[in-house]
Amino acid sequence: MGDYKYDDHLGSAAPKAFCMKLKAAPSKNVGLSMGQDMVKGGADGVYDMKHKTELTNKEGEHKMKLTATNKDFTFSNDWSPAALNEDGMDGCVSVEAKCVPAKEDFSGNVTLAVGNVAMGPVKSWTELGFDTNKAQAHSVTWTQNLNMDEYHAAWKVVGSAKDKSLTEAYGILAAKTADYDLWFRSLCLSRTVGLGVAWNAGEGKKMAAELSYDFYGKQKGINGLPLFARWGLQWKMKDGVNFSTAMNLQ
Questions:
Q1: Three-state SS annotation for 192-214
Q2: How far apart are CA 139 and CA 111, in angstroms?
Q3: What is the residue extent of each domain of the chain?
Q4: Residue 138 in 3-state DSSP?
Q5: Residue 245: pLDDT above 60?
Q6: Which residues lie closer than 8 Å to 238 by C-beta, 6 or more apart?
Q7: What is the C-alpha separation between 113 and 107, in angstroms, rounded?
Q8: Cβ-contact 83, 105 below 8 angstroms
Q9: Which of 26, 68, 186, 243 is the most exposed place for a label (fewest CB within 10 A)?
């Protein structure tokens, strides 16, 4: 019915046989970092070497980053033109390209993000993204958030050019009051909706609850109906311990 989680501050990862990290700032706008790890492999006496080098550069309206590892190479550039960052707007054009030489594979992404655009009492945040890869699995993503005071209407849709169909579609209506956060969300393709509420229970405790319904009826929940309920708790104690638990009814 429920479970709990806790933060493991001691860590449980296997110790590294060798680790080296170097950071440098050759100039005001240029950064360089290098890391080398040697970790135990899958067999006794076998070790794997992991390498990562990252070079960053900020030049005018551009923020560029080149990352090289022992598996792949990634280049990204965030361009914030002045025309998209005036009158309170926040705009950026992001480009990312990645290649994996060993697999002869590559992928790329271009995203236009423009936020805090005033339309009367409503403010808009918009993202349009285009993704592609070696398999020519082109896709387009549209993310939108309309905000007025403490009310939000947001959605995200992803379309596949290869399949000529929608692969993802989500929507949400949300409101914030002095005591509660309220939302109504929809997984449009699976025709599943959820009605939820979150509140501050005091003394570092935050709770949330949601009731959801599957209109397709493919899943069976409470009393055999396509109805589900869930509840969660996050508790930040005074001694620094964080505790969280969740319960699902179905």
A1: EEEEEEEEEEECCEEEEEEEEEE
A2: 12
A3: 16-59, 62-163, 177-250
A4: coil
A5: yes
A6: 204
A7: 20
A8: no
A9: 26
Q: How far is the C-alpha of 206 from the C-alpha of 231, rounded, in Å?
A: 11
The upper half-sphere exposure of residue 90, i.e. CA atoms within 13 Å in the direction of its Cβ, equals 7
CB neighbours of residue 146 within 10 Å: 15
pTM: 0.79
The two structure tokens encoding residue 190: 């699976």
How many whole angstroms separate alpha carbon 62 and alpha carbon 74?
Answer: 16
Residue 11 falls in which region: left (phi positive, over 0), alpha (psi -120 to 50) or beta: left
Query: What token pair was written down for 13?
Result: 């990862």
* Cβ atoms of 153 and 173 closer than 8 Å: yes
Between the two ends of the chain, the Cα-to-Cα distance in Å is 9
Identify which of 234, 236, 232 has the alpha carbon closest to the alpha carbon of residue 1.
232
Sort residue 56 into left (φ over 0), alpha (ψ -120 to 50) or beta. beta
Among 182, 185, 136, which Cα is nearest to 162's?
136
- Give the per-residue pLDDT at 99: 97
Tokens of 52: 């990562």
Q: What is the chain's Cα-based Rg?
A: 24
pLDDT at 9 over 70: no
Question: What Cα–Cα distance (Å) separates residue 65 from each residue in 73, 89, 107, 192?
Answer: 11, 24, 16, 40
Residue with tokens 């005033």: 118
Give residue for tokens 């709990």. Answer: 4
